[in-house]
Specification:
With 152 residues, this protein is mainly α. It has one domain (11-140). It has helices at 10-35, 45-61, 67-90, 94-114, 118-137; strands at 38-39, 42-43. A two-stranded antiparallel ribbon has the order 1-2. The longest helix is centred in the N-terminal third of the chain and has 26 residues, at 10-35. The radius of gyration is 19 Å and the shape is elongated. The N and C termini lie far apart (38 Å).
């Protein structure tokens, strides 16, 4: 008896793996950005300003990072996360979106390192690792609105 089961090609497996990573990282990044705008189940720019001002102050107060630097990072963080999250999710210049989104997470990790928040650093480190793996698989990106050059 010949057992001819159709199995997916290694290429389709890599495409599926990349799609899973892209969906997860896009959703995680988008929702991480949106949560910065939330307070009491309400989303607004005033909530964002208050939330991020509080975070910037706490990091500046408990680390060697100066207040001006924490303020710049904190006030742009939510917007960057929303932009990169949506771009990753939709497949808009995926390689650049993954790299820049990963850099944002490296910045988040640095802030947590500065306040000696080891558990948070570990969680962020796992996400940076997922960005790195996604970047190694990005050539298998088959479902994108705006494709990168040399992808697929």
């Amino acid at each position: 008896m010949n057992d001819h089961t159709s199995s997916p090609s290694p290429r389709s497996d890599l495409t599926s793996a990349f799609l899973l990573l892209r969906l997860f990282l896009g959703l995680r990044t988008l929702l991480a950005g949106l949560e910065k705008f939330e307070a009491n189940k309400s989303f607004s720019f005033s909530n964002y300003s208050e939330n991020m001002g509080r975070i910037a102050k706490a990091i500046a107060d408990y680390s060697i990072i100066p207040a001006w630097a924490t303020n710049i990072f904190a006030m742009s963080l939510g917007f960057l996360l929303v932009i990169f999250g949506a771009a990753i999710l939709l497949g808009i210049k995926t390689r650049a979106s993954l790299f820049l989104g990963g850099l944002v997470y490296v910045g988040l990790g640095f802030g947590l390192m500065a306040v000696q928040e080891g558990e948070g650093v570990a969680w962020i480190g796992m996400q940076v690792l997922m960005f790195a793996v996604a970047l190694t698989l990005v050539r298998h990106n088959r479902f994108a609105l705006v494709a990168d050059k040399h992808c697929g």
